[in-house]
Design brief:
about 290 residues, alpha/beta, Rossmann fold, 7-stranded mixed beta sheet, 10 helices
Length: about 290
């Protein structure tokens, strides 16, 4: 899919403004971002490959230091908002994930922790990321998946319907796991893998959840959002719904983390055998008699 053909879902200019403001407050949600980064970077333990040039996309101050602690000597931190890029921990670059400002084969490792869910053209972005990798370079990404903030989405919808007789999108749409491996393969990645994990979250009150979303710069940036000022009672009543439905442990909004892993193609990588190229019979390996179907 080309950039021109991709439908615009998110207001990227508004997202940049919110990430700029969030640069001063994102430290409030550092434990959540750190837990997500650890889930993603643990996959580096599964390879003996040593990386020397890494790109951190949208790491918000938690990814670059972890890469450096793992011995990666050169780390670039890219963010849509210059203020967020500066505090990210690597060599700061303000840039757009949809238009990467790097030459082909610039990095041997790219990490995007909870940052690609605001991209309008994810297939196009993945294609650019693959081209930015050196052969046999590794791409690791995580993003919120379908089911994340489901309770909040439902509470806002029910409350707005009650107040206005209709509703508008107030929570970002999230991708489905089944689509991600196919997107990686379509972008030219080798050995593509997609999986999901739950990152437990718990809040004593809805206000705490709303504050964290704002602190992280994760407020609604959907182009189809209602341009009118939200009803004064919307958040209070939606929060009351969340708290009423919560169990004894408090509000558990749920963060379903989808992870993508892919390698830039290289001749040293294993490939599936060609059909008909086997030189041994399965029956011999299993110690059974081969029979023809009647």
């Amino acid at each position: 899919m080309s950039q021109a053909a991709s439908p615009a879902i998110f207001d990227r200019a508004l997202l940049r403004q919110r990430r700029t403001r969030a640069a001063a407050t994102v430290g409030q949600v550092a434990p959540i971002l750190e837990a997500a980064a650890d889930l993603l970077l643990d996959r580096l333990d599964d390879t003996t490959r040593r990386f020397t040039r890494a790109l951190d996309i949208g790491g918000r101050g938690v990814v670059a230091p972890r890469l450096q602690a793992r011995g990666v000597p050169f780390v670039v931190s890219l963010d849509l908002a210059p203020a967020m890029a500066v505090r990210a921990g690597g060599l700061a670059v303000a840039g757009d994930e949809e238009w990467l400002p790097f030459a082909a084969e610039s990095f041997d490792l790219i990490v995007a922790s909870l940052s690609l869910h605001w991209v309008n053209d994810l297939p196009g972005a993945l294609l650019q990321l693959r081209r930015t990798l050196r052969p046999d370079g590794l791409f690791l990404a995580s993003l919120p998946g379908l089911g994340t903030l489901h309770e909040l989405r439902a509470a806002l919808a029910e409350t707005e319907t009650q107040l206005r007789g209709g509703l508008a999108p107030r929570v970002s749409p999230f991708p489905e796991l089944r689509d991600l491996a196919g997107l990686l393969q379509r972008a030219g990645f080798a050995l593509p893998v997609a999986d999901a994990e739950a990152l437990p979250l718990r809040y004593r009150s809805a206000l705490g959840l709303f504050r964290d979303l704002r602190a992280a710069g994760e407020q609604n940036a959907v182009l189809a959002r209602d341009p009118r000022v939200p009803p004064r009672a919307l958040l209070a009543l939606a929060g009351a719904r969340l708290e009423a439905a919560a169990g004894p442990a408090g509000i558990e909004p749920g963060l379903r983390v989808l992870t993508m892993t892919g390698w830039a193609p290289h001749e040293s990588q294993s490939r599936p055998a060609r059909p008909g190229s086997a030189n041994a019979r399965l029956a011999d390996a299993l110690g059974t008699e081969e029979r023809k179907l009647s």
